Automatic annotation (TrEMBL):
SUPFAM superfamilies: HAMP domain-like, Nucleotide cyclase. SMART domains: CYCc, HAMP. The keyword Cell membrane applies. Residues 253-306 form the HAMP domain. Residues 338-462 form the Guanylate cyclase domain. It is a multi-pass membrane protein. GO terms for cellular component: plasma membrane. It is found in: Cell membrane. The chain crosses the membrane at residues 30-54, 66-92, 117-138, 150-176, 197-217, 229-253. Keywords: Cell membrane, Membrane, Transmembrane, Transmembrane helix. This is Adenylate cyclase.
Amino acid sequence: MARGSRDYGSILLGSASEGGVKKRFRIQTLLTVSLLVANFIGAALAISLSAVGIPQPSIFQSSLWWVNFIAVPVYVVVAFVIGTVLGTVVVVRDLRWAIRGDVPTAKEARRAGRAPWQLVGIQGALWAGATTMFTIMYGVVDPDLIPKSFFVVGLSGFVVVAVSYLLIEFALRPVAADVITAGYLRRKRSGVRARSLVSWTVGSGIPVVGILLVTFFGAFRDDTSKLDLFVGVTVLAVIALSTGLLLTVLTSVSITAPIRSVRNAMNRVQRGDTEDVDLVVYDGTELGDLQNGFNSMVHGLRERDRMRDLFGRHVGRDVAEAALRSDPELGGTEVVAAVVFVDVIGSTTLAANRSPTEVVAILNRFFAVIVAAVERRQGLVNKFEGDAVLAVFGAPIDLRDPAGAALAAAREIATQLAVEVPDLSAGIGVGHGAVVAGNVGAIERFEYTVIGDPVNESARLSELAKRDPSQPLASGPAVDAAGASEQEHWERLEVTALRGRTEDTQIYGAIPTDS
């Protein structure tokens, strides 16, 4: 499809047609911003819980100055540097193929699949280290701070890990798309459920546990006032609401983006556009199956349209549509139709004097003139018989004046052939009468055709018309059946017995346009 700015579900991720350098810069920037945002949220959460949410026991004791003003800032700076540098090394190492714009090998695809988890693992390890170190440091000075430190830093770390994973997965959608396209990524069949459970656990489950712990410890601490308990529960509730909302939004975005891309593409298909609609499959969960399934559906629609077009080219559009509307059967029905037969003059000489390639090119131009004239008047080019053409008017589509349409088409063919295909000349005959139109052959292989005396009559008239290719010939019944406006273009020539017929035929010829 024509790649756009939302190939990956967001304008922030750019287009699938972007070059490697621009893609690398975009992905690296989004990853860095994602990690900064996640850690900022975790730090803000930790400060809010320590200072207001769970005020007692307080961490702002004079004996803890070295922890608050030395250990914590130093660890934050070191963790930031380690996380950024190590994360960049991991991304560049595992995604070097994507930066170059190459197709990944199986090994590179496995590494790319592990990249989000490695980045999240780095964040988790840093926050786990912070939880352990700060719990020990605060606990050495005041043992009552151990459960508070463990819960506050641990909860913040869980939030950082969850937010980081969702943001990193978002930033690496272009890489996931390349891996999926290469056919290596194994989809997580319960991925949507896992995202929802993580969102609930971190956004609601852990804060609710925190509320229970605050209530439990407050009930057994004599120095905890009702105001402290109220403030603690309120802050945890606000945190639960805010983190729950944030994670729910991130999760919903990861779910709705693939669905929205499918919906937009379906709207285009409904408008009849199936040629340029191919989704970039970038989700490794069930939603990726949905995107891939849509692509398969569109591919099937394109193949169906191609087969229908090919079918129509072989048997005629109208015959094809009639066959697709119902179950075609052998046999036919009697209808009144007009038949035009066009036969090349001197085809043997043409083949002897020209190369096969030239002969085919000339015949294709010859046939193009006939097809255009016939289809303009709602006729059916029923057969190409070597260098001859059989066209039918009045079957399978009913026409108000099939004879008039056939006569007008014959005159146009004679005029256009002289202009567009001067290398060839042809005899043109027009017959009219009752024919049997339907499917002839075996049940395994049949074709639509017309059988009857008008077919033979038009073929014989085309032979006679080779005396003067500029003047198509028609039978009396054909001219008599046509409308008055078309009859004016034909003149009576002679009465003769055509080859193979026992009765005489009244023959008409098209009046030259310059007379």
